[in-house]
Amino acid sequence: MYLTVKETAEYLDMDEQYIQKLILTKRIRALFDGEQYLINKEQFNTHKEQVEKYRELIQQILNEPIPEDIDVKDED
């Protein structure tokens, strides 16, 4: 499914001008149909999956219990 720059900005929750900049610097693949850029929505799936995995990892770290005694001393 192809999206316009405006639709892509809404989908990614970013500014339209930033999306244009990413297209012009070839960080986002896009087709120009003579009037506007069209962006394939599928190219963002991997990115969204990685972000979701990272959020889950952070949540696991935050949910890890704090040790009872943080003043553990070495018994040398």
Q: Features of this protein?
A:
single chain, 76 residues, alpha+beta, three-stranded antiparallel sheet, 3 helices, DNA binding, SinI_DNA-bd, DNA-binding
Sum this structure up briefly.
The protein is of the alpha+beta class and 76 residues long.
Q: Specify the structural class.
A: alpha+beta
Mean of the pLDDT scores? Answer: 88
Shape: rod-shaped
N- to C-terminal separation?
65 Å
Might you state the CATH topology name? Molybdopterin biosynthesis moea protein, domain 2
Count of helical regions: 3
**What is the beta-strand fraction?**
5-15%
Main beta sheet: strand number and arrangement? Answer: 3 strands, antiparallel
CATH level 1 name: Alpha Beta
Number of extended strands? 3
Helix content: 40-55%
With strands numbered from the N-terminus, the spatial order across the biggest sheet is 1-3-2
Question: Which spans have pLDDT < 50 for at least 5 consecutive residues?
Answer: none
| Reported CATH architecture | Alpha-Beta Complex
Keywords: DNA-binding
Domain Helix-turn-helix: 2-50
Pfam family, one: HTH_17
Protein name: Excisionase family DNA-binding protein
Q: Can you walk me through this structure?
A:
InterPro entries: HTH_17, SinI_DNA-bd. Keywords: DNA-binding. This is Excisionase family DNA-binding protein. Residues 2-50 form the Helix-turn-helix domain. One of its GO terms (molecular function) is DNA binding. The protein is an alpha+beta fold. The protein has one domain: Molybdopterin biosynthesis moea protein, domain 2. It is 47% helix and 12% strand. It contains three helices and three strands. It has helices at 5-12, 16-24, 45-63, and strands spanning 2-3, 30-32, 37-40. It has a three-stranded antiparallel β-sheet with strand order 1-3-2. A hairpin with a 4-residue loop joins strand 2 and strand 3 (37-40). Helix 1 crosses helix 2. It is rod-shaped, with a radius of gyration of 21 Å. The model has no long low-confidence stretch (mean pLDDT 88).
